[in-house]
Known about the structure:
The chain is α/β, with parallel strands linked by helices. Strand 12 (283-290), helix 12 (297-308) and strand 13 form a beta-alpha-beta unit. The longest helix has 17 residues, at 52-68. Among the domains are: 3-119, Rossmann fold, CATH 3.40.50; 123-241, Transcription Regulator spoIIAA. Helix 8 (200-209) runs parallel beside helix 9. The chain starts with a strand and ends with a helix. The protein has helices at residues 12-27, 52-68, 79-83, 85-89, 106-110, 150-154, 162-174, 200-209, 228-236, 253-259, 265-278, 297-308, 337-342, and strands at residues 3-8, 31-32, 42-47, 73-78, 94-98, 132-136, 138-139, 158-159, 179-183, 215-218, 243-245, 283-290, 314-319. It contains 13 helices and 13 strands.
Amino acid sequence: MTSFALFTFGCKVNFYESEWIRERLISLGATEAAGLSPCPDYVIVNTCTVTKRADRQCRQLIYRSARRCPETKIVVTGCYADRDTETLKTLPNVWKVFPNTRKNHLPEALLSRSPQASPDQMTLSDFEGHVRAYLTVQNGCNARCAYCIIPKVRGKSRSKPVETVLEELDALAATGHPEVVLCGIHLGLYGRDLTPMKTLGDLLKAIEDHPFKGLIRISSLEPMDLHEEILEIAASSEKICPHLHIPLQSGDREILKRMNRPYTPESYGELIYAIKKRIPSCTIGCDIMVGFPGETGESFENSYDFVSGLPLSYLHVFPYSERPGTLSQSFPGKVSESEKKAR
């Protein structure tokens, strides 16, 4: 019987897709191994490429797997597989590389079967080992942030039909998941590609009217996508958790322009205060990037002072990481690694 070990890096969408791969392989008769001891027939690495560090961690796992299990075939998929297929093919023991557009082919390829699902038809009936389940309702991104490689490796925005989401919610509830996180690469774009067109608000309304009795958590939402409709639904809902993660990236107006982020610090601040007024108990978190090209000491202080004055519950602070093929790769004003760390 074919055995596999599955390792995942990166975002919630990647973890959802890994769970789909795991569920699909087991349904086809494969068995999941407990890591690298004993060595499985296959090691599957679902990669991330959002930073240099993510790339390095993926490569380190591949090298470690090859050393510990020299007879094991290594299968690589995910965003790094999209961005740099040829490099990954040269790493030890790498048998096949599946970019995101062919991730759905992976389970059947391991077992010499014909693929049955398209990449955007993945649905789960369980999220084994977790009380809180992830449910990907949207994939891809149409934005062009200067620092981000993800639109190139995930493609344009695609949405899962409302009816499919509701069916999947029922399946996850039936397997014992009282809380489900709605996930996407650019979640606020949900439904705009559907016919007829829908919005994230339409999906939330449908979930409110659906007999699902669990809790719903909304994953990261861009500030320009948090419309009044969503706030109104969330404020009155007994299903939607009072928690929002709203990326800021920088509190300096000029740095936001260089990043190609379509809002200002002032509009972001107004949004945060509007949320707290409407939902006083809401936990709000945000992302802050430090060391973006052109970020001077003054612009960093502007960002620091701005964030310090907001009623935020937590921050995710991370250094700018140059990605090949992004606009910011050619920007002047690079910030040293030591200065990024200090900030």
